Amino acid sequence: LQLVESGGGLVQPGGSLRLSCTASGLDYYAVAWFRQAPGKEREGVSCISSMNSGTYYLDSVKGRFTTSRDTANTVSLQMNSLKPEDTAVYYCAATSGLCHIRDSSDYDYWGQGTQVTVSS
Q: What is the mean pLDDT of residues 57-63?
């Protein structure tokens, strides 16, 4: 499974960005978004279960970020009301196991990462 990400960039505080993660057959996998800021550990941001059975979010992004399956091969992360502390490299990851954002080591497949910078 080869994950390809797109959609990062520079945005002002309060703005929005939409990230996409694409791979053939992605609907059979749970897909998570992780992020890593400079000098910080990687943290899970969101997860969507295979076949759209559920979503999970980091507390600090609840109500601002939404993950969804746009097609059978694409998962997106809509990020609204962005804050400077959301600045990080964002990675999508997939697993044939359970959907969660606790431990990135459970995810077998990773995208290349895309930079999100929130700054005025």
A: 97
